[in-house]
Predict the structure.
Amino acid sequence: MDGAYDTRRCHKAIIERDAVPIIPIRKNGRPRKEDCPAARARNDTLRATRSYGRAFWKRWIGYHAHSRIEAKMRCVKSFGEGIMARDPDRQTAEIEVSPASPS
């Protein structure tokens, strides 16, 4: 997730599903009135990023794993319909032996 998902609706939908939102707050984000659990969760994130810094918050939450997964999915999508295997290990092998592979 990125700052574009830092909305009341997104936070509310995540909290309603008993999940923890790990959405980085926009750089110009301000605290919201704590009238619902979603606002409290967002304000907690805002306080943590302000006191510890954005980079530390991302490592603490595990946001870096999200970025790595997005990067890998972009690589896989760049091959388009060329990947036929469903198993991740077989997909890796298929990518490595394909003629379009950079290695």
In short: The chain has two domains: 3-61, 64-97. Residues 44 and 92 are 39 Å apart (CA to CA). Residues 37-52 form the longest helix (16 residues). The mean pLDDT is 79.
